[in-house]
Fold this sequence. Notes:
The chain is α+β, with helices and mostly antiparallel strands. Helix content is 25%, strand content 12%. The protein starts with a helix and ends with a strand.
Amino acid sequence: MGGVYGGGEDDDSSSKWPPWLRPLLQSSFFGQCKVHAAAAHKSECNMFCLDCVDGPLCSLCLNFHKDHRPIQIRRSSYHDVIRVGEIQKYLDITGVQTYIINSAKIVFLNQRRRPQPRPGKGAATNTCCVCDRSLLDSFTFCSIGCKIVGTSKNFDKEKIRMDDGGASDSDESSESMNAASIHKQVVRSKVQGFTPSTPPQTAAAKRRKGVPRRAPTGGLLLGY
């Protein structure tokens, strides 16, 4: 794969995004630090250094990253998120859906795995142009990972929105439809390539529940 996914020469995405972004999106957070496992209450790996790019870190690891740019990853509904005020200092997140958690505005790092039914034909619902997750009208992508896919040089929005093997509004040839189906599968695999494995749920995490609701200032309210 090219660009941020494979470093291909034909895609300019690799030069569009900072070098730490792909490792960040592919990291699996909230595991226990192997170096500081003895300090159980401080060894959860929910930090990331943008300068060293050496994987998830715990709070004790930060002692070795002074004067660097650390960011903190948080969790909502078992998915990795980051506060807008923290990530927008280093990355353009224009067009990415924002949510409100504990009075703080956040964005999701990657596409959420839980499937969401695609809106029916003719429905006046704004959706992510990559994965079709429902969005507020002012946004284009559901996550940072989807923005990378959706703004890549080789992304074709119309082909992605075509149903696999289904009939389109125009009389497309079977060859074109097959090509669209293959293209859609490739882009889906690209998005999944950013999604790290999910660590086992802890007892505390299982107790956290929340129902999304709209915030009065735009974005959505999410509960843990």
